[in-house]
Design a protein that fits this description.
The protein is of the alpha/beta class. It has 6 helices and 5 strands; from the N terminus they run βααβαβαβαβα. Strands 3-2-1-4-5 form a 5-stranded parallel β-sheet, sandwiched between helices.
């Protein structure tokens, strides 16, 4: 059903490592899909580079953010035509915005009112 899946895994390395079992379940549920992951640190990026479940790791480095970097990210999202975007951590508006601009037809995330309540 989902051929291209975008995982938005912002957060520290500890949080990112905890996402690995979820990645395994997603790949088992959708064995013919390609999984892409967005991370926001070089350490997390390097951690996932050798993960066989992931087709591509995308580094979203907000400290080096520029209009050109934004265009590169949007281009990466749009050229892949994602079917599903999953926000793995209640990261607020930035993660939700990344899921939205990914163009994914289906987006899964957190209801922030439930997280805060």
């Amino acid at each position: 059903m989902f051929k291209k899946i975008l995982i938005i895994a912002r957060g520290g390395l500890g949080n990112v490592i905890m996402f690995v079992p979820t990645l395994k379940h997603i790949s088992m549920a959708y064995p013919n899909s390609h999984i892409f992951i967005v991370v926001d640190s070089k350490v997390s990026y390097n951690f996932f580079l050798n993960e066989s479940l992931i087709k591509e790791v995308i580094l979203y480095n907000q400290s080096n953010w520029s209009f050109i970097e934004l265009l590169k990210l949007l281009s990466k999202f749009w050229e892949n035509d994602f079917d599903l975007a999953i926000v793995m951590h209640p990261g607020g508006m930035r993660s939700a915005l990344l899921a939205f601009v990914s163009g994914a037809k289906t987006r899964i995330g957190f209801d922030i009112s439930l997280v805060r309540g």
